[in-house]
Write a structure and sequence with these properties.
By secondary structure, this protein is mainly α. It contains 10 helices and no strands. α2 crosses α3, α3 packs antiparallel against α4 and α7 packs antiparallel against α8.
Length: 243
């Protein structure tokens, strides 16, 4: 029965093509997600790292020694990355190690902090006060970013689920209920047109969701998969209900 149901989609080349392309493009969408998760972990750990540096500098340690101590206790991926970078400072200068750490973090927050830290060291500025102020500033910034992202992510997921799953399923159920194929209704042209409509609507919904979160380019990798999913749900609901 399941095989017969799947075989009934053989006359939907657009859906099958989008499904194949969507599966292939998932591989391209996963690395940006992993990279963003890694970057946000580093940025969320940055305030406590700066606070620890401030305490150790206030206790009389040098900035390089304080960073080595904090690198051992900082959570991954911040700690291991800093340990690796500080090891490289033995064959180069400490300033070069800070620049390398900022580059490898791929975080604008870390890059700004390292640039300010280098400038403060060159100007013999009070590091303890500067580090504590930076810690409080970035803690507030990350709290705001996390709150905003949590709110927008919920709305974005709701848009995608409604447009790509809920609406095609509901319309497919109604079409199958009131115009069942088992009763002789010939609606193949209608089904093809509406399946394409839901595919386009899904693409727009995913793009809007990605734009809300500021990650539109990353979400575009998943557009073909969601398009195929909406077509499959609409046509599948029609066939299951209508016979």
């Amino acid at each position: 029965m399941l095989f017969r149901f799947l075989e009934s989609f053989s006359n939907q080349p657009m859906m099958l093509m989008l499904g194949v392309v969507g599966l292939a493009m998932i591989g391209g969408g996963i690395p940006p997600i992993r990279e963003r998760i890694r970057r946000r972990k580093i940025e969320n750990a940055l305030p406590s790292f700066l606070e620890g540096l401030s305490d150790e500098v206030g206790a009389g340690l040098g900035i390089q020694e304080a960073m080595q101590h904090q690198a051992k206790t900082a959570p991954a991926p911040l700690g291991p990355l800093l340990v690796e970078t500080l090891k490289e400072s033995h064959s180069s200068s400490f300033d070069a190690a800070l620049s390398s750490f900022a580059t490898k973090s791929r975080s604008s927050q870390v890059q700004r902090v390292m640039h300010l830290l280098e400038t403060a060291i060159e100007q013999n500025a009070p590091l303890q006060e500067i580090l504590m102020n930076l810690s409080m500033d970035y803690e507030r910034l990350n709290d705001l970013m996390n709150k905003r992202e949590s709110e927008l992510q919920g709305r974005g997921i709701l848009i995608v689920l409604f447009v790509c799953i809920g609406l095609p399923g509901l319309i497919g159920f109604l079409v199958g209920l009131f115009t069942p194929a088992s009763s002789g209704f010939q609606i193949e042209g209608f089904l093809s047109t509406f399946s394409l409509f839901f595919a386009v609507a899904s693409a727009v919904g995913v793009a809007v969701s990605g734009r809300m979160l500021g990650r539109m380019r990353d979400t575009m990798w998943f557009v073909p998969g969601w398009m195929a999913m909406s077509m499959f749900i609409f046509l599948g609901a029609t066939k299951l209900i209508g016979g």
